[in-house]
Amino acid sequence: MYKEVLVSKIVILTGDAAETLEVFYPYHRLQEAGFEVHIAAPEKKKLQFVVHNFIDGFDTYTEGPGHHWPADIAFADVNPDDYVAAVVPGGRAPEYVRNNPDAKRIVRHFMEKNAPVAVTCHGPLILAAAGVLKGRTTSAYPELAVDVETAGGVFEDGGAVVDGNLVSARAWPDNGTWMKAFLEVLPAP
């Protein structure tokens, strides 16, 4: 007799100009752990990611073209109740994704339900815009400390900062410790 196996799903909220490694590392690592992972974006289309690098002598990171990858679902079509957790990568995508009302709706849902949320790099910009950082401790790309604090949050410069359901990191060099900490707060798939 055939028995349907239900797999827990996780949604990644992103868009064009997201940092390739901050999307792909959690995408594949969470699949490896047994989760079904969906990429959500402002619209269902092929996304263009970017690669950020840190060069000695530069005051900030550099950016080049990264990989293409299709979004599975548009933010407007995401029912957060279908997912056990959310991941918010960085790159430049959060600069405009934070203005999307459905992206904010999705983030608010997870934070209000105390469901696991992983955020890195510029991702906290979306949480700030959604109004869910007040009193919360998060890491981010260090130059975003002022944005976290302006939103009422507490900035911590770390690679795997855990504040209850919220697991955060600075950028892609933290991917291993960030996802290890996130897997520890996730329910079993």
TrEMBL record:
The coiled-coil regions, if any, are: none
Please give the name of this protein: DJ-1/PfpI family protein
Where does the DJ-1/PfpI domain lie? 9-184
The family note in this entry says: Belongs to the peptidase C56 family.
Organism, per UniProt?
Paramicrobacterium chengjingii
Fetch the SUPFAM superfamilies from UniProt: Class I glutamine amidotransferase-like (SSF52317)
